[in-house]
Amino acid sequence: MEISSKEHTHFFSNNTVLPVDQSSFKSESSASKEKQSCCGGIKIFLGALSFVYFAKALSGSYLKSTITQIERRFDIPSSLVGVIDGSFEIGNLLIIILVSYFGAKLHRPRIIGAGCLIMSAGTFLIAMPQFFMGRYRYERFPSTINSTVSLSPCLQDKSQTPLSALEKSQAKINAGCEKEAGSSMWIYVLLGNLLRGIGETPIQPLGITYIDDYAVEENAALYIGCVQTVAIIGPIFGFLLGSLCAKLYVDIGFVDLDSVTISPKDVEWVGAWWLGYLIAGVISVLAGIPFWFLPKHLPKPESRKDSSTSSEHSKFIIEENKDQRTSYWQQAKLAEMAKEFFPSLKNLFGNPVYILYLCASIIQFNSLIGMVTYKPKYIEQQYGQTSSKTNFVIGLINIPAVAFGIFSGGLIMKKFGIGVLGAAKLSLGSSFFGYLLLLSLFAMGCKNSDVAGLTVSYHGAKPMTDYEEALFSECNSGCSCSKNDWDPICGENGVTYVSACLAGCQASNGSGKSTVFFNCSCVGTFESSQSSSAVVGPCQKGNECPKMFLYFLVISVITSYTLSVGGTPGYILLLRCIKPHLKSFALGIYTLAIRVLAGIPAPVYFGVAIDTTCLKWGSKRCGGRGACRLYDSSALRYVYLGLTLVLGTVSILFSVAVLWVLRKRSSPQDETLSANRERGACGTKSRKDNFVNSDQLIQSTYWPEKETRL
Question: CA 97 to CA 202: how far, in whole Å?
């Protein structure tokens, strides 16, 4: 709690004799009490905000970990999955300007608490389709589904199949078509993610500025670094939760698991993607509870007592005498605050440092969002890993490296007292070396799996004709096969065949996962073939893949750390290059731009680009293209990494421009500062030495009335 200046003067005049102005000091005991109150309040808010960051990061990362599961469950292409992923940013777009501008004037903690409730509602909505749509169906030859009817995979004559079996199969397909025709359940996932975006909106602009307003200025960078570091723990648990759920069958609890004939190694496997969303929704509810009990304002630190930077809320109104500001603020209405909206917007976009850094961030986030969204898919398709293992690796290895990098950036800023110019250098350096390391990943890929008719011919040579036409050969010409099926089997020659029918298999033995096919004419004609048998499921990737995957992990961890070091310096650069009373508004505009120009389009065009590398598309029960079953590994590597690096290079160029503008501004001010420091003639107001590092790089118009009393 604060003590009035009149009480200060009376206290000091009765108890002490000082050689300077007594009204400028407090007693040690009162100052200590206020410091404890201030520090205690900001630390409670810091803990609550960290938990909210954890909750939102957990649900967001869990969505990333279930991208391939959602794609397979709803049988949709990557481009449509990108639209679903981008709907989160659309939710932010709807209200972010209103929240960041007007939210700074209202009860910020309670607005954050309300956002948590909305976020949890959206998370629950994402999981709802599992309880309304039918059981998951995958493509499998009838003999592998514990059937008592013995069928030949190669149906040389339609009469081979018993009429009752055909009628039963067709009836199931027709029933499935009727159900699919009446619903597009992926829309619920999109709407739920949209609602998540709306709820998450106030957390960043209001939470970060609340800390920056009431924390001691030299601790602000460390606090922000701590919040972002704790937030990284959310993705760790999110991906680990995704790994656990990916091992569980999608319909666990609804079907007999012994009847499931596919394993997590199959492309058609879908884990219990919905289970994690229920857990994430409960965590979001719990995270919002503390904010309903936090105060609207905290005591201001002693170092910010008389600084205009600490009274952010009063600066949105047209400035008058300091004595009249409080009463004027209390009488202000929303309409009067709105009058300052466009002048504030013009002020922000008239700042070249802010604009250039905004452009650099937009391009870089396009690169990073696209890369992170499809990283699980890239690892699965490039290195032949299961969804469960992929999520486990990302959560346990990659994410901690990001957390350590973000914390290191904040610690370096505090340890060495780095100012705005130094923050710009650190951010640029981390981006440059990070993307340089990413370049080496081009050499760490796996060759395409040998799939007859797609990546190799039925005789061992590379196919030169259209992929779909190449699926048919002399060895399976006598079979009645469909080119739309995807029920892969692995021949003893190490080649994968799209289906047992296309492999020309004449007989099978066993059921379920243990089914073995015999007398496969296409397997026997392969140049390296010694046998004509095959087993259920695709063949594993080449022997060099495990080693390449290990190299990929090492470089990926180092790259993640390097890129993350520049995160906190970038935040500080953003906060220090604008007028202090526009911090909330500037962060809101910054977040809006990232959402609209990076978060929404990046997953979509990355998904479209990745779809172009698909070799074999699945087919829906009622016709139409489903999810991709097989990608061209080489093309996927060049598209995924190439797009990431091109965008990263453009962002580096903008970062260089930011550094150039800051250097240009700092040079004349450094000379003025060294010549007139004692007279306090830097800009329009004098600055205390401990603020020089950050303030001397910005023009005086950006930091009006900043001063401290000794």
Answer: 10
Alpha helices in 66-77 (DSSP H): 67-73
CB-based contact 344:582 (threshold 8 Å): yes
Residues 474 and 432 in one domain: no
CA dist list (Å): 272 to 66, 249, 281, 437: 9, 5, 16, 35
Task: Tell me how far apart the alpha carbons of residues 198 and 91 are, in angstroms, rounded to a whole number.
Answer: 5
DSSP 3-state helix, strand, coil percentages of the chain (rounded to 5)? 65, 5, 30
Would you say 647 and 656 are in contact if contact means Cβ atoms under 8 Å apart?
A: no
Tell me: do 452 and 439 sit in the same domain: no
Task: Tell me, yes or no, whether 535 and 463 share the same domain.
Answer: yes
Mean residue pLDDT of the chain comes to 75
Structural domain includes residue 374: yes
- C-alpha–C-alpha distance, residues 429 and 443, integer Å: 24
CA–CA–CA angle 296, 297, 298 (5° rounding):
135
Answer yes or no: are the C-beta atoms of 570 and 560 closer than 8 Å: no
Q: What mean pLDDT comes out for the span 635-642? A: 93
Query: Is 32 within the bounds of a domain?
Result: no
Q: What is the CATH number of the domain that holds 351?
A: 1.20.1250.20
Do 536 and 547 belong to one domain? no
Residue where a domain terminates, one of 487, 517, 540: 540
Q: Side chain identity at 329, as an amino acid letter?
A: W
- Boundaries of domain holding 74: 38-144+184-300
Phi, psi of 519 (to 5 degrees): 55, 45
Neighbour count for residue 279 (Cβ, 10 Å): 17
Q: Going by C-beta distance under 8 Å and a sequence separation of 6 or more, which residues neighbour residue 404?
A: 561, 564
Same domain, 559 and 493: no
- Alpha-carbon distances of 563 from 57, 239, 365, 430, 435, rounded to whole Å: 18, 20, 12, 5, 8
Boundary-marking domain end, from 513, 540, 567: 540
Looking at the domain assignment, is residue 548 inside a domain? yes
Strand partners, 417: none
Q: Exposed, middle or buried, 588 (CB in 10 Å: 0-12/13-18/19+)? A: buried
Regarding beta strands 505-509 and 516-520, do their DSSP bridges make them parallel or antiparallel, or are they unpaired? antiparallel
Within this chain, do residues 229 and 359 fall inside the same structural domain, yes or no? no
Tokens 């479209």 belong to 608
Dihedral sign for Cα 597, 602, 604, 609, please. Answer: positive
Lowest average pLDDT, out of 24-38, 232-246, 554-568, 670-684, goes to 670-684
Q: Across-strand partners of 507?
A: 518
Residues 363 and 461 in one domain: no
Is residue 513 in a domain? yes
Residue pLDDT, tens place only, 118-165: 999 999 999 998 888 878 877 665 544 444 445 566 764 444 444 333
Total count of domains within the chain? 3
Whether residues 428 and 471 fall in one domain: no
What number of CA atoms fall less than 13 Å from residue 118's CA on the CB side?
A: 22
β strands within 513-623, DSSP E: 516-520, 534-536, 614-619
For 306, residues 6+ apart whose C-beta sits below 8 A from its C-beta are 707, 708, 709
Which residue type sits at 404?
A: F
| Closest residue by Cα to residue 226 from 51, 485, 386, 105 | 51
pTM over 0.85: no
Name the burial class of residue 194, with classes exposed (0-12), middle (13-18) and buried (19+) by CB atoms within 10 angstroms of its CB: buried
